[in-house]
Amino acid sequence: MPAVHFVGARERYTSSNMIERFKGALEKGELHELFSQGDLVAVKFDAGEKTALGYVRPPIVKAIVDAIYSCDGYPVLLDTLNMNTKASDVGRNWLEATALHGFSVTSLGKSPMLADGYTGEEELLVPVEGGELGGVEVARAIAESHALVVVSHVAAHPFAGLSGALVSCGVGCVSLKGKGRVHAPLRPIFLQDRCDGCGECEKHCPHGAVSLENNEPQLDEKSCIGCAYYCTAACPVGAIVIDRSSTMRFQKRVVDSAMAVNTALKGKVYYVNVLIDICPYPDCYPFSDVPFVSDQGILMSSDPVALDSATLSVIDEAPGLPGSIAEECDALSPGRGKLFHITGVDPKEMILYAVKQGLGQGDFRVFKV
Question: Is 210 found in the same domain as 72?
């Protein structure tokens, strides 16, 4: 049964500092088995969006960098470009976000770099058998590393249910073209009887795929890249939705893409899920909303499926926070399947598919640090 190590968020005295316990657990755990002396170890994190407060905090990334050095590896900090921005702005926006959020050589001891390049076109096509995808474009700097640590800021995800290890690997580790493959099934559906013609969807679509005709939104299929984030998030009356069959295909493509990343790295991948500021929206959104459960800590494992299963369990067992989306969705009580109530998408379906595809195991054993 896969091991999942859990560093709780509570700090009662100096020696119980969460960052130090986390670093110690990395150094003593499975991380040192991942690579050999001098190997290039990619650390994939998400710098977040300029206008949002949901992102993994730099001291956590720094602890991973220090732990890799302690295990005689050579860390390189990598992120990939977000598909929810105009092509001419993606590189500049990433540079601004990393600076605003404190990801710098001063705070981390290393300068972050873009694994898929400044235009998102540095990639390596990796085949994957079966499932939804025949292959996916993995970000080149990730694919060519000796090992990989995937760092996830855990949040709800509107189309996967959970933004954790599987999404951060299957979406976060691929190029812009790869992200397009994964998101291809997602297309917005406009509910005209709800629409009030405000035009927010047209205003916020970064690719100009939505326009208003007679105060009714219309979709240009050729321009739409399937990101589905900005139009659905922009609508104040809930008139833009994604159908369930599309989200199921998206979940499968996330898993297939994660399998391709693991293939490229020959299985030398370790996963860290950060359950701090657990918000209703993933880090690619331009806003975060307030957390819906309290800070829980950090979970880590070499099995992404077991890790996401354990993450779901921790979130479900925690009481929801009053005044958050958990209260709006009647998900305050422990054990209520919070992410399904919040997103309408069951993350367990993605986990079951990952087990079926052989990416990992759904069972786990938690070891508290």
Answer: no
- Give how far the C-alpha of residue 174 lies from the chain's centroid of Cα atoms, to the nearest Å: 12
Q: Which two tokens stand for residue 135?
A: 């292959």
Q: How far is CA 184 from the centre of its chain?
A: 17
What is the residue-wise DSSP string for 169-213? HHTTTB-HHHHHHHHTT---EE-TTT-----HHHHH-TTS-EEEE
pTM: 0.94
| Closest to 227 in 3D by CA, of 349, 90, 131 | 90
Nearest Cα to Cα of residue 75 among 51, 35, 113, 43: 43
Are 171 and 302 contained in the same domain? yes
Closest CA to 282 of 156, 196, 195: 156
Burial category of 177 from C-beta neighbours within 10 Å (exposed 0-12, middle 13-18, buried 19 and up):
middle
Amino acid at 107: S
CATH number at residue 176: 3.40.50.11440
**H or E segment to which residue 58 belongs:** helix 58-70
| Span 250-303, pLDDT tens digits | 999 999 999 999 999 999 999 999 999 999 999 988 888 999 999 999 999 999
Q: Judge whether 133 and 181 are in contact, CB under 8 Å.
A: yes
Indicate which CATH number applies to the domain containing 232.
3.30.70.20
Whether the CB-CB separation of 308 and 296 falls below 8 Å is answered with no
Q: How far apart are CA 363 and CA 76, in angstroms?
A: 31
- Residue 356, amino acid: K
Residue at token pair 């020696």:
15
Structure tokens at 315: 């979130």
